Amino acid sequence: MAGRHRLLLENAQQLVLVCGRGEEYLLREGAASPAVLRDASLVVGLDGCIKAVGQADVIRNQFSGATFERIIDCSGKCVLPGLVDAHTHPVWAGDRVHEFAMKLAGASYMEIHQAGGGIHFTVEHTRKATEEELFNTFKHRLERMRRAGSTLVECKSGYGLNLETELKMLRVIERAKQSMDIGISSTYCGAHSVPKGKTATEATDDIINNHLPKLKELKLSGEIHVNNIDVFCEKGVFDLDSTRRILQAGKEIGLQINFHGDELHPMKSAELGAELGAQAISHLEEVSDEGIMAMARAKCAAVLLPTTAYMLRLKQPQARKMLEEGVIVALGSDFNPNAYCFSMPMVMHLACVNMKMSMNEALAAATINAAYALGKSDTHGSIETGKQGDLLIINSSRWEHLIYQFGGHEALIDYVIVKGKVIYQNERCGTMSSY
């Protein structure tokens, strides 16, 4: 196939497709054995999409007359889909390292929250920060996520709790969408906490009557494009009725429902999400058996966050039960001032050790299923012809090293690629041939 193309990856020891038949997601049986090609190559076109995947000799013959902007020899290495982080809070000012010591001394999340710490501490600092300050720290965090292999990241607002600061955060996210080589799914999370001086009902009314109409207006004018709506459905925060009202109003202006549920107390959030047609629900440490079954029937993804359960010493989400009941299980880092983790490989490792997922299940949960949780599994999450060329090359002959080497991704990842363009290259790799 003659012509010019953006990228050729050739001779990979393992090329991990994850899935290869256009699946939207993988359930337990499908995730048990990811599709893997050996001695394989792939081509990404100038449009950033994958043009061909197959055995190295077949691709070599098929593209014998073609030219490439870049060629990378992957002999002895593994190629995987770029990782998808399905839940992050990466736009904020004022770190909370001092609260980590409080947690270690035995303070609970809600005790810190009620003492003026937690979300309210971050809200105070984020309101004071300029848009430029927020963008610069956000950009640095995204770059660290990319180096750890993430090529699509869900990014929430939620540290404003007033319209002005929520819009400031969403403008920062929109700016990164337009200027950085990384996929972003943006989430309005104005119902992250009840603002000081308001009741939950007053905050709910403000969001429905003021915040959401403004988001709709900005979407129509092309200024800000928000993908998802989120609410922290929790005892002492937003109850089930308030959550329902906000999520329904967001759905009516075209936002996907993707919210926090059943984290610290059983709230019947899973049942509500299934009823409303939610794309995904996160946390679910306290989900009911009925909620699990409802999510399975509704094809609502469970975004599990092993970092949060680990750092807050909560009981782990019931990943095994969810998988056995037919729930679409995805993973996220929950990066935020309370759970400071950029690395999806570390998240996958924790999912395997603490939530008893297999490495194959964790890989599916951090690729195709995480993409599904964001409504993007038609373009992301697997290596298939026609999908976006978001890829990861690791310096190992077996892909499982990405999970096995806990905290080892900085030495293991050689290249991170978005739309066929190398956006991160490990310094030991030097320069590769291109023409």
Tally of DSSP β-strands: 16
Q: Work out the strand percent.
A: 15-25%
**What is the CA-CA span between the terminal residues?**
17 Å
Q: Tally the helices.
A: 18
| Rg of Cα set | 21 Å
Q: Label the overall shape.
A: globular
Helix content: 25-40%
| Major sheet size, sense and barrel closure | 8 strands, mixed
Mean pLDDT: 96
- Low-pLDDT ranges: none
Q: What structural category arises from helix and sheet content?
A: alpha/beta
GO molecular function, one term: imidazolonepropionase activity
Domain Amidohydrolase-related: 79-422
Protein name: Probable imidazolonepropionase
GO biological process, one term: L-histidine catabolic process to glutamate and formate
Compile the SSE list and pairings.
Layout: E1 3-18, H1 28-31, E2 35-44, E3 50-55, H2 56-62, E4 66-73, E5 78-81, E6 83-85, H3 97-104, H4 109-114, H5 119-128, H6 131-147, E7 150-156, H7 163-179, E8 183-191, H8 200-220, E9 228-231, H9 240-252, E10 256-261, H10 269-276, E11 280-283, H11 289-298, E12 301-304, H12 306-311, H13 319-324, E13 329-331, H14 344-355, H15 359-365, H16 368-373, E14 391-394, H17 401-404, H18 409-412, E15 413-418, E16 421-425
Parallel strand pairs: 1-4, 1-5, 6-7, 7-8, 8-9, 9-10, 10-11, 11-12, 12-13
Antiparallel strand pairs: 1-2, 2-3, 5-14, 14-15, 15-16
Helix pairs in contact: 6-7, 8-9, 10-11, 14-15
